[in-house]
Each structure stands twice: as structure tokens, then as C-alpha cells.
Amino acid sequence: MMTFLLIVALALAILLLLSLLRLLRTPSYADCLLITQLVGTIGVAVLALLSVIQNQPYLLDVALVLALLTSMTIVTFTQLRGTPQ
After folding, report:
1. pLDDT value at position 32?
2. Which of 53, 59, 56 is closest to 2 using CA atoms?
3. Which residues contact 69 (CB under 8 A, 6 or more apart)?
4. Do 18 and 35 touch, CB atoms closer than 8 A?
5. Is the model's pTM score more than 0.90?
6. Cα-flanking dihedrals φ and ψ of residue 56, to 5°?
7. How far apart are CA 47 and CA 9, in angstroms?
8. With contact defined as beta carbons under 8 Å apart, do 66 and 47 qualify?
């Protein structure tokens, strides 16, 4: 079971890297918002898997904080984009 979880965590890490590379090459603001949300979600999933694999329950707390910060980042981006400059 641990081998399967490690493979899933590795696959998520590769997807995280690909998402970050796409973020560097994205042309539109909406894509940046979606990729930011995707990176946060993948990060939460990786932390949750590592919590189970390493038997470290505090990593779930870190994952929850990351999820909250990601949602706050999206709200901030949309609020800043809506104000005239």
C-alpha cells in the first residue's frame, strides 16, 4: 500500500512541476488564477499523502492551512483585478 501511495505522490509532484512550468508561459490573467488554484490543490494532496505515508498527523494541519491560503490568494487576485488602475 505504501508503494502505491508513494507512486501517487510522485505523480502529483510531476503534475505540480508541469503546472508551475505552464504558469511561467501563460498569456492570460484567468489562466494564472486557475493554475494558482491547481498548484494549491496539488500541494494539499501531496501533503495529505505524505501525512499518511510518514504517519505525521501535523502535515494534515499544514495542508489545511495551505488550502486556506490558496483560497485567500484567489480572492485577493480577483479583488485586485476588479479595481480600476
Report:
1. 84
2. 53
3. 40
4. no
5. no
6. -120, 95
7. 9
8. yes
Tell which residue, 39, 44, 54, has the closest CA to residue 6: 54
Enumerate residues 6+ apart whose C-beta is below 8 A from 16.
39, 42, 43, 46
Closest Cα partner for 12 from 39, 34, 37? 39
What is the chain's alpha carbon radius of gyration, rounded to the nearest angstrom? 15
State how far the Cα of 56 lies from the Cα of 54, in Å rounded to an integer: 5
Are 41 and 53 in contact by the 8 Å Cβ rule? The answer is no
Q: pLDDT digits over 16-67, tens only? A: 999 989 888 877 888 888 888 999 999 999 999 999 999 999 999 999 999 9
- Extract the C-alpha cell encoding 22: 505552464
Contact 80, 29 (CB under 8 A): no
